Amino acid sequence: MQLLGAGSVTLQRCSAKGLARPMHTLPLRPVAPGALPVRPTAPGLLTNRGAPGPLLPRRAAGSGHLQQCRASGGGAASAVPEPAQPDNHASSAQPASSSSQSPAPPVAPAAPAASASSFEDRAAALCGTITSLFPLWVVMAAALALWRPEAFTWLPTPFITWGLALTMLGMGLTMRLADFADVFRRMPGLLLLGMGLQYTVMPGLGWLFSRYAGLPAPLAVGIAVLSACPGGTASNIVAFLARGEMALSILMTAASTLAAVVATPAITAALAGTLAPVDAKGLFMSTMQVVLLPVMAGCVANQQFPAVVARVARFTPAVATLLVAAIVGSTLAASAGAVRASGPALLGAVAGLHASGFLLGFVIAKCLGLSGKVCRTMSIEVGMQNSTLGAVLAALHFADPLTAAPCAVSACTHSVMGSALAAYWRRTTRDEEEAEGRGKEAAEGGSGVGGGKPQAA
Protein backbone atom coordinates (compact mmCIF):
# COMPACT_ATOMS: atom_id res chain seq x y z
CA MET A 1 0.00 0.00 0.00
CA GLN A 2 1.26 3.46 -0.91
CA LEU A 3 1.18 6.02 1.89
CA LEU A 4 0.86 9.80 1.33
CA GLY A 5 3.45 12.19 2.67
CA ALA A 6 3.58 13.91 6.04
CA GLY A 7 0.64 15.97 7.08
CA SER A 8 -2.69 14.26 6.83
CA VAL A 9 -4.39 11.72 4.68
CA THR A 10 -8.07 11.94 4.00
CA LEU A 11 -9.97 8.71 4.21
CA GLN A 12 -12.72 8.75 1.67
CA ARG A 13 -15.60 6.52 0.79
CA CYS A 14 -16.91 6.09 -2.70
CA SER A 15 -20.62 5.71 -3.14
CA ALA A 16 -22.25 3.58 -5.77
CA LYS A 17 -22.55 6.63 -8.05
CA GLY A 18 -18.83 7.45 -7.89
CA LEU A 19 -19.17 10.58 -5.71
CA ALA A 20 -16.62 11.09 -2.98
CA ARG A 21 -16.91 12.93 0.30
CA PRO A 22 -14.38 13.24 3.13
CA MET A 23 -15.00 11.20 6.25
CA HIS A 24 -12.52 12.51 8.81
CA THR A 25 -8.97 13.77 8.97
CA LEU A 26 -6.38 12.44 11.37
CA PRO A 27 -2.84 13.76 11.87
CA LEU A 28 -0.11 11.39 10.79
CA ARG A 29 3.52 11.28 11.84
CA PRO A 30 6.21 11.14 9.22
CA VAL A 31 7.22 7.59 8.49
CA ALA A 32 10.70 6.65 7.45
CA PRO A 33 11.03 4.37 4.45
CA GLY A 34 10.70 0.74 5.53
CA ALA A 35 9.45 1.56 9.07
CA LEU A 36 6.14 0.54 10.54
CA PRO A 37 3.52 3.25 10.76
CA VAL A 38 2.39 4.48 14.15
CA ARG A 39 -1.28 4.30 15.19
CA PRO A 40 -2.88 7.67 14.49
CA THR A 41 -4.22 9.49 17.50
CA ALA A 42 -7.18 11.75 17.53
CA PRO A 43 -7.12 14.88 19.72
CA GLY A 44 -8.47 14.33 23.20
CA LEU A 45 -7.84 10.55 23.24
CA LEU A 46 -5.24 8.89 25.50
CA THR A 47 -3.42 6.17 23.65
CA ASN A 48 -0.17 4.35 23.90
CA ARG A 49 1.87 6.44 21.52
CA GLY A 50 4.75 4.03 21.57
CA ALA A 51 2.79 0.96 20.51
CA PRO A 52 2.79 0.38 16.78
CA GLY A 53 -0.49 -0.42 15.15
CA PRO A 54 -2.16 -0.57 11.77
CA LEU A 55 -2.78 2.64 9.99
CA LEU A 56 -6.13 1.74 8.50
CA PRO A 57 -9.10 0.10 10.22
CA ARG A 58 -9.86 -3.60 9.57
CA ARG A 59 -12.37 -4.30 6.88
CA ALA A 60 -15.76 -5.60 7.93
CA ALA A 61 -16.39 -9.32 7.53
CA GLY A 62 -17.56 -10.28 4.08
CA SER A 63 -15.93 -7.40 2.10
CA GLY A 64 -12.66 -8.07 0.34
CA HIS A 65 -12.56 -5.63 -2.54
CA LEU A 66 -10.21 -2.66 -2.79
CA GLN A 67 -11.58 0.35 -4.61
CA GLN A 68 -9.66 3.13 -6.29
CA CYS A 69 -10.98 6.45 -5.04
CA ARG A 70 -9.80 9.75 -6.31
CA ALA A 71 -9.26 12.60 -3.88
CA SER A 72 -11.72 15.47 -4.09
CA GLY A 73 -8.97 18.00 -4.89
CA GLY A 74 -7.44 15.99 -7.72
CA GLY A 75 -4.61 14.43 -5.64
CA ALA A 76 -2.89 11.14 -6.45
CA ALA A 77 -4.96 7.99 -6.31
CA SER A 78 -4.40 5.58 -3.44
CA ALA A 79 -5.60 2.07 -2.79
CA VAL A 80 -7.96 2.50 0.14
CA PRO A 81 -10.18 -0.29 1.48
CA GLU A 82 -13.83 0.46 1.90
CA PRO A 83 -14.50 1.17 5.59
CA ALA A 84 -16.93 -0.98 7.57
CA GLN A 85 -20.46 0.36 7.51
CA PRO A 86 -22.71 0.57 10.54
CA ASP A 87 -25.78 -1.65 10.74
CA ASN A 88 -28.23 1.10 9.83
CA HIS A 89 -26.48 1.59 6.49
CA ALA A 90 -26.06 -2.11 5.72
CA SER A 91 -28.69 -2.01 3.01
CA SER A 92 -26.89 0.71 1.05
CA ALA A 93 -23.28 -0.38 1.62
CA GLN A 94 -23.16 -3.52 -0.52
CA PRO A 95 -19.97 -4.51 -2.33
CA ALA A 96 -19.82 -3.37 -5.88
CA SER A 97 -19.35 -6.89 -7.18
CA SER A 98 -22.55 -8.09 -5.53
CA SER A 99 -24.70 -6.08 -7.89
CA SER A 100 -23.43 -8.12 -10.82
CA GLN A 101 -24.25 -11.46 -9.18
CA SER A 102 -27.78 -12.84 -9.57
CA PRO A 103 -29.34 -14.47 -6.52
CA ALA A 104 -29.48 -18.27 -6.50
CA PRO A 105 -32.89 -19.68 -7.44
CA PRO A 106 -34.88 -21.04 -4.48
CA VAL A 107 -34.85 -24.81 -4.00
CA ALA A 108 -38.27 -26.33 -4.44
CA PRO A 109 -39.39 -28.48 -1.48
CA ALA A 110 -39.87 -32.21 -1.94
CA ALA A 111 -43.64 -32.00 -1.81
CA PRO A 112 -44.50 -35.50 -3.13
CA ALA A 113 -42.26 -37.30 -0.62
CA ALA A 114 -43.53 -35.19 2.27
CA SER A 115 -47.16 -35.76 1.32
CA ALA A 116 -46.58 -39.51 0.96
CA SER A 117 -44.97 -39.67 4.39
CA SER A 118 -47.81 -37.64 5.89
CA PHE A 119 -50.41 -39.94 4.31
CA GLU A 120 -48.58 -43.00 5.65
CA ASP A 121 -48.49 -41.54 9.15
CA ARG A 122 -52.20 -40.77 9.06
CA ALA A 123 -52.98 -44.28 7.82
CA ALA A 124 -50.82 -45.78 10.58
CA ALA A 125 -52.61 -43.67 13.20
CA LEU A 126 -55.98 -44.87 11.88
CA CYS A 127 -54.78 -48.49 12.02
CA GLY A 128 -53.68 -47.96 15.61
CA THR A 129 -57.16 -46.75 16.51
CA ILE A 130 -58.73 -49.79 14.83
CA THR A 131 -56.42 -52.14 16.74
CA SER A 132 -57.12 -50.50 20.10
CA LEU A 133 -60.86 -51.10 19.58
CA PHE A 134 -60.37 -54.84 19.02
CA PRO A 135 -63.04 -55.98 21.57
CA LEU A 136 -65.61 -53.66 19.99
CA TRP A 137 -65.19 -55.12 16.49
CA VAL A 138 -65.38 -58.70 17.77
CA VAL A 139 -68.52 -58.07 19.82
CA MET A 140 -70.16 -56.24 16.91
CA ALA A 141 -69.33 -59.09 14.52
CA ALA A 142 -70.73 -61.68 16.96
CA ALA A 143 -73.93 -59.72 17.51
CA LEU A 144 -74.42 -59.25 13.77
CA ALA A 145 -73.81 -62.96 13.12
CA LEU A 146 -76.45 -63.99 15.66
CA TRP A 147 -78.92 -61.37 14.44
CA ARG A 148 -78.31 -61.62 10.67
CA PRO A 149 -76.33 -64.82 9.91
CA GLU A 150 -76.52 -64.17 6.17
CA ALA A 151 -74.06 -61.30 6.64
CA PHE A 152 -71.28 -63.91 7.16
CA THR A 153 -72.51 -67.24 5.81
CA TRP A 154 -71.33 -66.34 2.30
CA LEU A 155 -67.70 -66.46 3.46
CA PRO A 156 -66.14 -69.82 2.41
CA THR A 157 -64.12 -72.07 4.71
CA PRO A 158 -60.82 -71.27 2.87
CA PHE A 159 -61.30 -67.63 3.86
CA ILE A 160 -61.22 -68.64 7.53
CA THR A 161 -58.06 -70.68 7.03
CA TRP A 162 -56.21 -68.03 5.04
CA GLY A 163 -57.43 -65.28 7.36
CA LEU A 164 -55.86 -67.02 10.34
CA ALA A 165 -52.67 -67.64 8.35
CA LEU A 166 -52.40 -63.91 7.57
CA THR A 167 -52.95 -63.14 11.25
CA MET A 168 -50.10 -65.46 12.22
CA LEU A 169 -47.92 -63.94 9.49
CA GLY A 170 -48.50 -60.49 10.99
CA MET A 171 -47.46 -61.86 14.37
CA GLY A 172 -44.29 -63.31 12.87
CA LEU A 173 -43.39 -59.95 11.32
CA THR A 174 -43.02 -58.46 14.82
CA MET A 175 -40.13 -60.74 15.85
CA ARG A 176 -36.92 -62.33 14.67
CA LEU A 177 -35.51 -65.79 15.12
CA ALA A 178 -32.87 -64.37 17.45
CA ASP A 179 -35.62 -63.13 19.81
CA PHE A 180 -36.45 -66.67 20.90
CA ALA A 181 -32.85 -67.42 21.81
CA ASP A 182 -32.59 -64.07 23.61
CA VAL A 183 -35.61 -64.73 25.82
CA PHE A 184 -34.46 -68.28 26.57
CA ARG A 185 -31.14 -66.79 27.61
CA ARG A 186 -32.52 -63.91 29.74
CA MET A 187 -35.59 -65.43 31.37
CA PRO A 188 -35.82 -69.13 30.59
CA GLY A 189 -37.54 -69.96 33.88
CA LEU A 190 -40.40 -67.48 33.37
CA LEU A 191 -40.92 -68.54 29.77
CA LEU A 192 -41.06 -72.24 30.64
CA LEU A 193 -43.36 -71.51 33.60
CA GLY A 194 -45.76 -69.60 31.35
CA MET A 195 -45.87 -72.38 28.77
CA GLY A 196 -46.37 -74.94 31.52
CA LEU A 197 -49.33 -73.02 32.95
CA GLN A 198 -50.74 -72.54 29.47
CA TYR A 199 -50.86 -76.25 28.72
CA THR A 200 -51.80 -77.54 32.18
CA VAL A 201 -54.16 -75.04 33.84
CA MET A 202 -56.41 -74.42 30.86
CA PRO A 203 -56.67 -78.07 29.70
CA GLY A 204 -57.51 -79.10 33.27
CA LEU A 205 -60.23 -76.44 33.43
CA GLY A 206 -61.43 -77.49 29.98
CA TRP A 207 -61.84 -81.06 31.14
CA LEU A 208 -63.95 -79.92 34.12
CA PHE A 209 -66.23 -77.60 32.13
CA SER A 210 -66.67 -80.02 29.21
CA ARG A 211 -67.76 -82.78 31.60
CA TYR A 212 -69.79 -80.95 34.24
CA ALA A 213 -71.23 -77.83 32.59
CA GLY A 214 -74.25 -79.74 31.22
CA LEU A 215 -73.48 -78.93 27.57
CA PRO A 216 -74.39 -81.11 24.59
CA ALA A 217 -71.58 -83.21 23.12
CA PRO A 218 -70.65 -80.87 20.22
CA LEU A 219 -70.33 -77.88 22.56
CA ALA A 220 -68.40 -79.95 25.12
CA VAL A 221 -65.92 -80.95 22.39
CA GLY A 222 -65.63 -77.29 21.45
CA ILE A 223 -64.74 -76.42 25.06
CA ALA A 224 -62.03 -79.10 24.99
CA VAL A 225 -60.60 -77.78 21.74
CA LEU A 226 -60.62 -74.22 23.11
CA SER A 227 -58.76 -75.19 26.28
CA ALA A 228 -56.03 -76.90 24.24
CA CYS A 229 -55.23 -73.80 22.18
CA PRO A 230 -52.16 -71.58 22.75
CA GLY A 231 -52.24 -68.01 23.99
CA GLY A 232 -54.07 -65.51 21.84
CA THR A 233 -52.45 -62.64 19.99
CA ALA A 234 -54.88 -60.21 21.63
CA SER A 235 -53.20 -60.98 24.95
CA ASN A 236 -50.24 -58.81 23.92
CA ILE A 237 -52.50 -55.76 23.58
CA VAL A 238 -54.18 -56.50 26.90
CA ALA A 239 -50.79 -57.01 28.62
CA PHE A 240 -49.67 -53.61 27.36
CA LEU A 241 -52.80 -51.93 28.71
CA ALA A 242 -52.40 -53.73 32.05
CA ARG A 243 -48.76 -52.55 32.45
CA GLY A 244 -47.48 -56.11 32.08
CA GLU A 245 -44.07 -57.42 31.06
CA MET A 246 -44.34 -56.91 27.30
CA ALA A 247 -41.25 -58.90 26.24
CA LEU A 248 -42.41 -61.91 28.25
CA SER A 249 -45.97 -61.61 26.93
CA ILE A 250 -44.94 -61.54 23.27
CA LEU A 251 -42.49 -64.40 23.58
CA MET A 252 -44.89 -66.52 25.67
CA THR A 253 -47.48 -66.13 22.93
CA ALA A 254 -44.97 -66.98 20.23
CA ALA A 255 -43.49 -69.96 22.10
CA SER A 256 -46.87 -71.44 23.02
CA THR A 257 -48.02 -70.95 19.41
CA LEU A 258 -45.04 -72.89 18.09
CA ALA A 259 -45.55 -75.59 20.72
CA ALA A 260 -49.22 -75.83 19.66
CA VAL A 261 -48.14 -77.75 16.57
CA VAL A 262 -47.71 -80.77 18.85
CA ALA A 263 -49.53 -79.82 22.06
CA THR A 264 -52.93 -78.80 20.68
CA PRO A 265 -53.67 -82.02 18.71
CA ALA A 266 -52.38 -84.20 21.56
CA ILE A 267 -54.38 -82.41 24.29
CA THR A 268 -57.51 -82.29 22.14
CA ALA A 269 -57.31 -86.02 21.51
CA ALA A 270 -56.85 -86.67 25.24
CA LEU A 271 -59.72 -84.45 26.33
CA ALA A 272 -62.28 -85.00 23.59
CA GLY A 273 -61.38 -88.49 22.41
CA THR A 274 -64.12 -90.03 24.51
CA LEU A 275 -66.70 -87.48 23.30
CA ALA A 276 -66.07 -87.53 19.54
CA PRO A 277 -63.53 -88.99 17.13
CA VAL A 278 -60.46 -86.78 16.85
CA ASP A 279 -58.12 -86.74 13.85
CA ALA A 280 -54.86 -85.95 15.66
CA LYS A 281 -52.78 -86.17 12.48
CA GLY A 282 -55.09 -83.80 10.63
CA LEU A 283 -55.00 -81.36 13.55
CA PHE A 284 -51.20 -81.49 13.48
CA MET A 285 -50.99 -80.75 9.75
CA SER A 286 -53.54 -77.92 9.93
CA THR A 287 -51.79 -76.34 12.91
CA MET A 288 -48.48 -76.47 11.05
CA GLN A 289 -50.00 -74.86 7.95
CA VAL A 290 -51.87 -72.01 9.65
CA VAL A 291 -49.49 -71.37 12.57
CA LEU A 292 -45.93 -72.60 12.21
CA LEU A 293 -45.26 -71.80 8.55
CA PRO A 294 -46.72 -68.24 8.58
CA VAL A 295 -44.95 -67.33 11.84
CA MET A 296 -41.60 -68.63 10.60
CA ALA A 297 -42.08 -66.86 7.26
CA GLY A 298 -42.72 -63.59 9.08
CA CYS A 299 -39.61 -64.05 11.24
CA VAL A 300 -37.42 -64.73 8.21
CA ALA A 301 -38.85 -61.74 6.34
CA ASN A 302 -38.16 -59.48 9.32
CA GLN A 303 -34.62 -60.85 9.49
CA GLN A 304 -33.88 -60.33 5.79
CA PHE A 305 -35.86 -57.17 4.97
CA PRO A 306 -36.14 -55.18 8.22
CA ALA A 307 -36.75 -51.79 6.57
CA VAL A 308 -39.66 -53.01 4.45
CA VAL A 309 -41.15 -55.05 7.29
CA ALA A 310 -40.93 -52.06 9.64
CA ARG A 311 -43.22 -50.08 7.32
CA VAL A 312 -45.62 -52.96 6.67
CA ALA A 313 -45.83 -53.90 10.37
CA ARG A 314 -47.47 -50.55 11.15
CA PHE A 315 -50.64 -51.77 9.41
CA THR A 316 -50.74 -55.54 10.02
CA PRO A 317 -52.30 -55.39 13.54
CA ALA A 318 -55.34 -53.57 12.18
CA VAL A 319 -55.69 -56.08 9.33
CA ALA A 320 -55.41 -58.96 11.82
CA THR A 321 -58.06 -57.34 14.04
CA LEU A 322 -60.58 -57.11 11.20
CA LEU A 323 -59.79 -60.65 10.03
CA VAL A 324 -60.37 -62.06 13.51
CA ALA A 325 -63.72 -60.23 13.72
CA ALA A 326 -64.74 -61.69 10.34
CA ILE A 327 -63.69 -65.22 11.40
CA VAL A 328 -65.71 -64.92 14.63
CA GLY A 329 -68.76 -63.71 12.73
CA SER A 330 -68.47 -66.49 10.15
CA THR A 331 -68.10 -69.19 12.83
CA LEU A 332 -71.09 -68.02 14.85
CA ALA A 333 -73.26 -67.50 11.76
CA ALA A 334 -72.81 -71.16 10.77
CA SER A 335 -74.66 -72.29 13.94
CA ALA A 336 -76.51 -69.17 15.01
CA GLY A 337 -79.78 -70.97 15.87
CA ALA A 338 -78.12 -73.57 18.13
CA VAL A 339 -76.02 -70.92 19.84
CA ARG A 340 -79.08 -68.83 20.60
CA ALA A 341 -80.86 -71.91 21.97
CA SER A 342 -78.02 -72.84 24.34
CA GLY A 343 -76.83 -69.30 24.88
CA PRO A 344 -76.85 -68.93 28.69
CA ALA A 345 -75.25 -72.33 29.38
CA LEU A 346 -72.63 -71.89 26.65
CA LEU A 347 -71.79 -68.33 27.67
CA GLY A 348 -71.54 -69.37 31.33
CA ALA A 349 -69.17 -72.25 30.54
CA VAL A 350 -66.91 -70.12 28.33
CA ALA A 351 -66.85 -67.21 30.78
CA GLY A 352 -66.14 -69.56 33.68
CA LEU A 353 -63.26 -71.16 31.77
CA HIS A 354 -61.58 -67.81 31.08
CA ALA A 355 -62.26 -66.32 34.51
CA SER A 356 -60.72 -69.39 36.17
CA GLY A 357 -57.68 -69.11 33.88
CA PHE A 358 -57.16 -65.42 34.74
CA LEU A 359 -57.45 -66.17 38.47
CA LEU A 360 -55.23 -69.26 38.62
CA GLY A 361 -52.54 -67.71 36.44
CA PHE A 362 -52.25 -64.74 38.78
CA VAL A 363 -52.47 -66.75 42.03
CA ILE A 364 -49.87 -69.35 41.01
CA ALA A 365 -47.41 -66.67 39.87
CA LYS A 366 -47.99 -64.74 43.13
CA CYS A 367 -47.38 -67.84 45.25
CA LEU A 368 -44.04 -68.30 43.48
CA GLY A 369 -42.97 -64.83 44.66
CA LEU A 370 -42.95 -63.16 41.22
CA SER A 371 -43.37 -59.41 40.76
CA GLY A 372 -46.73 -57.80 40.18
CA LYS A 373 -45.88 -57.05 36.55
CA VAL A 374 -44.99 -60.68 35.85
CA CYS A 375 -48.08 -61.92 37.74
CA ARG A 376 -50.34 -59.78 35.58
CA THR A 377 -48.63 -61.06 32.45
CA MET A 378 -49.04 -64.70 33.53
CA SER A 379 -52.70 -64.15 34.31
CA ILE A 380 -53.40 -62.62 30.90
CA GLU A 381 -51.43 -65.20 28.94
CA VAL A 382 -53.10 -68.13 30.72
CA GLY A 383 -56.62 -66.70 30.65
CA MET A 384 -56.71 -65.63 26.99
CA GLN A 385 -56.70 -68.34 24.31
CA ASN A 386 -56.19 -68.30 20.57
CA SER A 387 -59.86 -68.99 20.02
CA THR A 388 -59.55 -68.23 16.31
CA LEU A 389 -57.23 -71.20 15.90
CA GLY A 390 -59.72 -73.35 17.83
CA ALA A 391 -62.56 -72.23 15.58
CA VAL A 392 -60.60 -73.07 12.43
CA LEU A 393 -59.53 -76.50 13.71
CA ALA A 394 -63.05 -77.30 14.87
CA ALA A 395 -64.56 -76.25 11.54
CA LEU A 396 -62.04 -78.29 9.55
CA HIS A 397 -61.95 -81.53 11.54
CA PHE A 398 -65.38 -81.97 13.17
CA ALA A 399 -68.56 -82.64 11.23
CA ASP A 400 -70.94 -80.75 13.51
CA PRO A 401 -70.60 -76.97 12.96
CA LEU A 402 -71.75 -76.43 16.53
CA THR A 403 -68.30 -77.62 17.69
CA ALA A 404 -66.77 -74.32 16.62
CA ALA A 405 -69.34 -72.21 18.51
CA PRO A 406 -67.56 -72.18 21.91
CA CYS A 407 -64.40 -70.85 20.26
CA ALA A 408 -66.36 -68.08 18.53
CA VAL A 409 -68.08 -67.12 21.79
CA SER A 410 -64.69 -67.24 23.49
CA ALA A 411 -63.28 -64.60 21.13
CA CYS A 412 -65.88 -62.13 22.41
CA THR A 413 -65.77 -63.24 26.04
CA HIS A 414 -62.04 -63.21 26.70
CA SER A 415 -61.60 -59.93 24.81
CA VAL A 416 -64.19 -58.14 26.94
CA MET A 417 -63.00 -59.73 30.19
CA GLY A 418 -59.34 -59.10 29.42
CA SER A 419 -59.97 -55.47 28.49
CA ALA A 420 -61.95 -54.86 31.69
CA LEU A 421 -59.21 -56.50 33.77
CA ALA A 422 -56.54 -54.44 32.01
CA ALA A 423 -58.46 -51.22 32.70
CA TYR A 424 -58.69 -52.10 36.39
CA TRP A 425 -54.99 -52.95 36.66
CA ARG A 426 -54.00 -49.83 34.75
CA ARG A 427 -55.82 -47.63 37.25
CA THR A 428 -54.62 -49.46 40.36
CA THR A 429 -50.95 -49.90 39.37
CA ARG A 430 -50.12 -46.32 38.40
CA ASP A 431 -48.25 -45.76 41.68
CA GLU A 432 -46.36 -49.01 41.19
CA GLU A 433 -45.28 -47.94 37.71
CA GLU A 434 -44.12 -44.54 38.94
CA ALA A 435 -42.20 -46.11 41.85
CA GLU A 436 -40.51 -48.52 39.45
CA GLY A 437 -39.53 -45.63 37.18
CA ARG A 438 -38.05 -43.70 40.12
CA GLY A 439 -36.14 -46.81 41.20
CA LYS A 440 -34.63 -47.21 37.72
CA GLU A 441 -33.63 -43.54 37.64
CA ALA A 442 -32.02 -43.84 41.08
CA ALA A 443 -30.15 -46.99 40.02
CA GLU A 444 -28.90 -45.34 36.84
CA GLY A 445 -27.86 -42.22 38.78
CA GLY A 446 -26.03 -44.29 41.40
CA SER A 447 -24.18 -46.28 38.77
CA GLY A 448 -23.25 -43.09 36.94
CA VAL A 449 -22.03 -41.22 40.05
CA GLY A 450 -20.47 -43.79 42.32
CA GLY A 451 -21.23 -47.16 40.84
CA GLY A 452 -18.44 -47.24 38.29
CA LYS A 453 -14.90 -48.26 38.81
CA PRO A 454 -12.50 -45.57 39.95
CA GLN A 455 -10.51 -44.14 37.13
CA ALA A 456 -6.74 -43.99 37.22
CA ALA A 457 -5.27 -40.59 37.84
Automatic annotation (TrEMBL):
Keyword entries, A-Z: Membrane, Transmembrane, Transmembrane helix
Chief location of this protein within or outside the cell: membrane
The keyword Nucleus belongs to this UniProt entry's keyword annotation: no
A Pfam family matched in the record: SBF
Biased segments, Gly residues type: 445-457
InterPro entries per UniProt: BilAc:Na_symport/Acr3, Bilac:Na_transpt, Na+/solute_symporter_sf
Region entry Disordered, spans: 26-113, 430-457
Subcellular location: Membrane
Membrane topology qualifier: Multi-pass membrane protein
Compositional bias annotation for Low complexity: 90-102
GO cellular component, one term: membrane
Keyword Magnesium listed: no
Listed transmembrane segments: 123-147, 159-178, 190-209, 215-241, 248-271, 283-303, 315-339, 345-368
Domain of life the protein comes from: Eukaryota
Family of this protein: Belongs to the bile acid:sodium symporter (BASS) (TC 2.A.28) family.
Protein name per UniProt: Uncharacterized protein
